[in-house]
Amino acid sequence: MISTENKSTKALLLGMLNDISDEDSFKELKLLAETAGVEVVGEAVQKRNKIDPAYYVGKGKAEEVAQAVKTLGANAVICDDELSPVQIRNLEDLTGVQIIDRTMLILDIFAQRAKTSEGKIQVELAQLQYMMPRLTGKGIELSQEGGGIGTRGPGETKLETDRRHIRRRIHHLKEELEDIQKSRKIITQSRAYPVISLIGYTNAGKSTLMNALTNAGVKTGDRLFETLDTTTRGLILPDGRKVLLSDTVGFIRKLPHQLVDAFRATLEEVKEADLLIHVADGSSPTVEEDIAVVNSVLKELGVEKTPIIIAINKIDITGDTAIFIEGYNKDSTIGISALTGKNLDKLLDAICHMLPSNRRKAELLIPYDNASALNEIHQNSAISETEYLDEGVKIKGEIDIAKLKKYEKYIIG
To answer: 104-131 as b/e, with b when 16 or more CB fall inside 10 Å?
Structure first.
């Protein structure tokens, strides 16, 4: 956790620049710091082909940073990459302030955002997985520096105790997440309605779109990771079908692998979706790169074959111009404004068109004494004909497949 003895964190940002993507990552680091409640008092970058194994940046640049920390009154340095224990120790020794790497910063934001028990479990697991190798690193340092009786022994014993405690806790948390995942699969399999997942880069407007389509009341704001826990609401499509719309956690560049692993249970929700709506921020100068980041995570999850709609959001800012994203045809790419509601009707029509059909033409005869079956079938079917006969109600139309399976004894013709 980010800590400066209860003082507000005043940080200098430090990054390595090799290409444009690094510049975008560094800009994002500033947003992450502000999201975490950090006051950014300065920035420093170095153009360098590879990271220095001892100081992250070169020794000379690190000394400049140490001087800047004193001049600016900073009490922390935030680096735009994940650092090794050695790099953290060397920079702390040189600057005399707390060193926070990108992964630690993101984990701290997630810890602030987690509200549900599942979210808290996932964040704790990610934090412990991050800490574990750093404890190991300190253990190696102690054994090398101690080198004798009275130094190495007690240090190693304490560290080994810490490691064992963390390993046990990690194992326990993983078991809890496995139970959650099993429960989710059971719930998913018993769902009577198709599932649509909103995915996208963080702060692209997924939660705003969720609220616009379902009145979900999800908290929104111009901050990264405003939504962390998954929210699901019902939605009636223009063709009469009822679906479940799910809002998921957003993605960013250099997403720590610990978070991908820990949040795999939540991301499983995406794997079970019948359709994905990829919300992208059309006002972002890096919109295509943002889309590529999300697609790389989707590929890792193995959901490339799921039907997908690209919703280019914020056309209230950019204007309703022609939208084209390489690799997607224009029929599945729609410019929208979740804030003003513009083109949401087009988005809903596209959903109706692309969502795999969960209906089949059929004719059923429902006995009068099973009115509940009739009501249930009506909920997610398109009934074209209804006839009241002596033996029951005869209905005909596009019937929900799950309901047909449940009430197959009433199928006629």
So the answer is: bbbbbbbbbbbeeebbbbbbbbbbbbbb
